[in-house]
């Protein structure tokens, strides 16, 4: 096949490969632009359709602001390419240029081929042997590298659901694990983006009451070398190779437009899509990692380097390197990526992994960092859902409650307090009440409402809910690290037997405890997040760090099985019930002197909680009463009762001016009678380790 390309100067903007439509010419043209402040030469390498043969090479023009650019005439969609960049190779100065290493375009929208670790990526490992270092540095990496691919997608045209935060229920899900075993999904789409858009999975989400699907990383990622050496993979995907391309393994037919199609179908069913994104580090790892992209383009601009030794990377992520969002071009890259996923792919928001890193200067975390300011002023990005994981391992790495007003945050204090309360830990009532009622101590200081708190009990990282009530200790042996990885304290309980059990009483207790936790989660002030598999009592066999397990440890069961699960039905009822109470639609924190609601905390005797009641270490019972001062129907008065003790008690239902009957709407017993009505002042038996939802009614039958 013959190739006829012609290079012209082109333009410095936009960055990446941009298809140019010339009105007066039938010849297709692509403009290339890439930033590098220290390079001596930037070469664009073009490859044939196999990606194996380089067919042309052009030196780009160096323009202003360190943008290298060129326009190739006679090229169109589908062309494969990469970069070779020349300059100084002086790691001690932060310079790591090497034209023998083919680099992917940081703005690639598509790829061809697979990444394979090879000797060409090992050069730093042999840094003590100058001869070996020179030999490996001279090896060409092109044969082991995917090739960037010129592509074009039209902007997203679907109508977005725009779910209010007060109505949001999040379902955290892995693209592959969510459907790979689901026989109600077509074979070709199981474990793929389009599998999430098939009727069976959509019906599953709708029946549960989910409004927002939060996907674990879908930006193109690769596995770390140490995992590949152990025949494991980075299943979760927190090792980003490129910030624009959908992970290719999840495509049914290999077309990146499939992601856009998935989003559009989910939107048609009023389900939002939020992406878990990793802008804190890249797959290039530490100073022994492979040169794939940024390291060979402009190492000192894209990464935060150790000021005392520029050959090393600041490692606030624990993954070897840290992106430098204080640099304007790195910040631009991240902003361009976010806008691409919103405007082109159609997503509704983002959950930012290790988010304090995004706001960290050399002097520490700043809530007015340029990254936050850039998003706040951006007319596209300031309209989407923004969620922070508010911790990392860097200095000042725990920032729960300190993100800007428009952000929501994963609330681990909520997670830990609810776990401990239902485990039966002592002295927790004040903390439990505060977390349940929205964590105003964390978020109200800068004008935020309870929706600032993303409430969760389990997530991809840590024990599943089923394992939380089945294992005392972690069991991560399958990860190949001798069970050293993962958290050692999970605030879990096995209730006498480690792992699975055939004891019926034990099994029933574990199920009830899961219901107790879920009822707490779904009726807390804030935004509930449910981890996929919770509804089917999915177990990871006690593995609390299953990031490298691409197997049934992570894959959910067949939908035919889990749709019959008692937890599936329980979550569905709870989500439906939550929507009926206007208390969960408020955009403010409710305090004792609220003008619209009366807030009352009750003790076991159905009287107001005293200071002594709050401080009694072995007090595991709490009543939560919210009464609309303008109550018109039975959903304006809400009573929730928690009993985390191993003892039952009798509770006298309170007298409320607008209530003649109390209606049991939900509880966590094995066989609840949800048609029960009780008179005000009547006593009811509250079973040990149980939770109850009641609403006030002006009329209705009652027992007694």
UniProtKB/TrEMBL annotation:
Positions of region (Disordered): 474-499
Biased composition (Basic and acidic residues): 474-488
Record domain Glycosyl hydrolase family 13 catalytic: where: 181-578
Molecular functions per Gene Ontology: amylo-alpha-1,6-glucosidase activity
Gene3D superfamilies cross-referenced by the UniProt entry: Glycosidases, Golgi alpha-mannosidase II, Immunoglobulins
Alphabetical list of Pfam families matching this protein: Alpha-amylase, CBM_48
Superkingdom: Bacteria
Alphabetized UniProt keyword annotations: Glycosidase, Hydrolase
Lipid metabolism is among the record's keywords: no
Xref: SMART domains: Aamy
Matches recorded under InterPro entries: GH (IPR017853), GH13_cat_dom (IPR006047), GlgX_Isoamylase_N_E_set (IPR044505), Glyco_hydro_13_N (IPR004193), Glyco_hydro_b (IPR013780), Glycogen_debranch_GlgX (IPR011837), Ig-like_fold (IPR013783), Ig_E-set (IPR014756)
GO terms, biological process: glycogen catabolic process
Family assignment from sequence similarity: Belongs to the glycosyl hydrolase 13 family.
Protein name: Glycogen operon protein
């Amino acid at each position: 096949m013959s190739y006829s390309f012609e290079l012209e100067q082109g333009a410095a903007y936009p960055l990446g490969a941009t298809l140019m439509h010339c009105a007066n010419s039938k010849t297709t043209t692509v403009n290339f632009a890439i930033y590098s402040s220290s390079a001596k030469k930037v070469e664009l390498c073009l490859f044939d359709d196999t990606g194996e043969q380089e067919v042309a090479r052009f030196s780009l023009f160096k323009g202003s602001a360190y943008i290298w650019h060129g326009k190739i005439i006679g090229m169109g969609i589908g062309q494969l390419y990469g970069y070779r960049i020349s300059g100084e190779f002086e790691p001690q100065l932060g310079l790591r240029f090497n034209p023998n290493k083919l680099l992917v375009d940081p703005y690639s929208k598509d790829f061809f081929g697979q990444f394979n670790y090879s000797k060409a990526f090992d050069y730093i490992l042999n840094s003590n042997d100058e001869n070996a270092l020179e030999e490996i540095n001279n090896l060409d990496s092109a044969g082991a590298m995917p090739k960037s691919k010129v592509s074009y997608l039209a902007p997203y045209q679907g109508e977005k659901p725009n779910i209010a935060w007060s109505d949001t229920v999040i379902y955290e899900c892995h693209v592959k694990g969510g459907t790979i075993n689901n026989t109600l999904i077509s074979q070709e789409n199981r474990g793929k983006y389009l599998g999430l858009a098939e009727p069976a999975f959509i019906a599953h989400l709708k029946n549960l009451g989910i409004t927002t699907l939060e996907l674990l990383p879908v930006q193109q990622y690769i596995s770390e070398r140490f995992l590949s050496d152990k025949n494991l993979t980075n299943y979760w995907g927190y090792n980003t190779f490129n910030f624009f391309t959908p992970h290719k393994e999840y495509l049914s037919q290999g077309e990146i437009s499939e992601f856009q199609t998935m989003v559009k179908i989910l939107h048609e069913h009023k389900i939002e899509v939020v992406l878990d994104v990793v802008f804190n580090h890249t797959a290039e790892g530490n100073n022994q990692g492979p040169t794939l992209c940024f390291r060979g383009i402009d190492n000192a601009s894209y990464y935060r380097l150790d000021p005392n030794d520029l050959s090393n990377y600041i490692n606030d992520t624990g993954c070897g390197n840290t992106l430098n969002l204080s640099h304007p071009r790195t910040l631009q890259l991240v902003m361009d990526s976010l806008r691409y996923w919103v405007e082109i792919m159609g997503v509704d928001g983002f959950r930012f992994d290790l988010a304090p890193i995004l706001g960290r200067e050399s002097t520490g975390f700043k809530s007015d960092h340029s990254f936050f300011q850039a998003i706040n002023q951006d007319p596209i990005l300031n309209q989407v859902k923004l969620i922070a994981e508010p911790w990392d391992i860097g200095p000042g790495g725990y920032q729960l409650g300190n993100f800007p007003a428009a952000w929501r945050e994963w609330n681990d204090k909520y997670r830990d307090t609810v776990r401990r309360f239902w485990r039966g830990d002592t002295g927790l009532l004040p903390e439990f009440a505060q977390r349940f009622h929205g964590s105003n101590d964390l978020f109200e200081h800068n004008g935020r409402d309870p929706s600032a708190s993303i409430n969760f009990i389990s997530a991809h990282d840590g024990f599943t809910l089923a394992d939380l009530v089945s294992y005392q200790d972690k069991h991560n042996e399958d990860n190949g690290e001798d069970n050293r990885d993962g958290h050692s304290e999970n605030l879990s309980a096995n209730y006498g037997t480690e792992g699975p059990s055939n004891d019926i009483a034990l099994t029933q207790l574990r199920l009830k405890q899961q219901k107790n936790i879920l009822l707490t989660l779904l009726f807390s002030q804030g935004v509930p997040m449910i981890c996929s598999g919770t509804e089917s009592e999915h177990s990871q066999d006690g593995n609390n760090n299953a990031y490298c397990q691409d197997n049934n440890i992570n894959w959910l069961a067949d939908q035919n099985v889990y749709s019959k699960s008692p937890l599936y039905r329980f979550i569905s009822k709870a989500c439906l019930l939550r929507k009926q109470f206007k208390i969960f639609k408020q955009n403010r924190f409710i305090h004792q002197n609220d003008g619209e609601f009366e807030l009352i905390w009750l003790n076991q005797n159905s009287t107001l909680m005293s200071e002594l009641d709050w401080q009694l270490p072995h007090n595991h019972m709490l009543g939560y009463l919210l009464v609309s001062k303008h109550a018109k129907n039975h959903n304006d008065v809400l009573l929730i009762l928690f009993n985390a003790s191993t003892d039952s008690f009798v509770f006298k239902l309170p007298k409320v001016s607008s209530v003649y009957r109390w209606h049991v709407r939900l509880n966590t017993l094995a066989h609840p009678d949800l048609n029960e009505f009780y008179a005000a002042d009547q006593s009811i038996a509250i079973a040990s380790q149980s939770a109850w939802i009641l609403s006030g009614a002006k009329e209705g039958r009652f027992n007694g």
